[in-house]
Amino acid sequence: MTQPRSKKSPEEIETAVSQLKSTRPAYKALLDFYGNVFIAQATSTPEIEPIPIAGDLLSARRQEGLPLIDKTEFRIDLAAARRLFDALCDAAVLPEGGLSVDAGPLKKVVADGDIDPENLFRAVLNDDEAAFADAARKTGLESAVIEFFAYNSIKPSLTVCRDHLSPHLDATGDWDKGYCPVCGGLPVLSALSIDAGARRLFCAVCWHDWSAPRMRCPYCDHAEPKHHPYLHTTEEPEYRVDLCENCRSYMKTVDLRQLPRPFHPPLEALATLHLDMTAREKGYRSGMSPDIDP
Ligand SMILES: [Zn+2]
Ligand SMILES: [Zn+2]
Fold it and tell me: Global pTM?
């Protein structure tokens, strides 16, 4: 299949957001905000030197089933991330108060020098929860909100690094792991291709996508088809929720054969919170939870 990873232009994102808004009015405020986030990201152009990987290290990592880099090795264009951080904080103060987060306090502590945004950017890659907790105390915002702004500020840098790194994968054959071959991140979304319905998984960190078997759980590797039912409704034929009865995790899946708008994976992941709720109500948990035992 053609890889759906191909970058979406701001216009395509705009189209996808407005189509979603017309079919799901309940998401309007959320989509207004995320639309601004994604368009700001699509117009950010970080400049980053490629991360060097020695040839012998590349084949050794491949043989051991390790990703090309650890996510702590991602490089960040700090100036570009800082500009995006300010833009995202501004976007969160919607005139209609649509989003229930006012990121003004976050922008202020950074502007006053009480928090170095580079520490927050690094905290995303180092899983440094203490840094987010500290910023939460200083701003009155939740840690998860701070992490959201920090991650989305560096995301264009991560995808530039990913695009530098991913050509290394082509020479090394198939990847059959449940984590990202570029950075080791877990998949947050999957998609069924337009042509044959083949499955691809999308990394929650760098959004690289890779092919995966339809009937195998990426979180616990369980592959017995009868243990993999899925949820589906005729009202939203473009979505399904794949379930694993072995580890009780779920994965949201977009069927591209049914999707009536440009496919921007992060948008579909965020515009499907109702599917997360449905799966949780049925006793399943996100495969992104840290307590899944393989
Ligand atoms: Zn990744
Ligand atoms: Zn599983």
Answer: 0.92
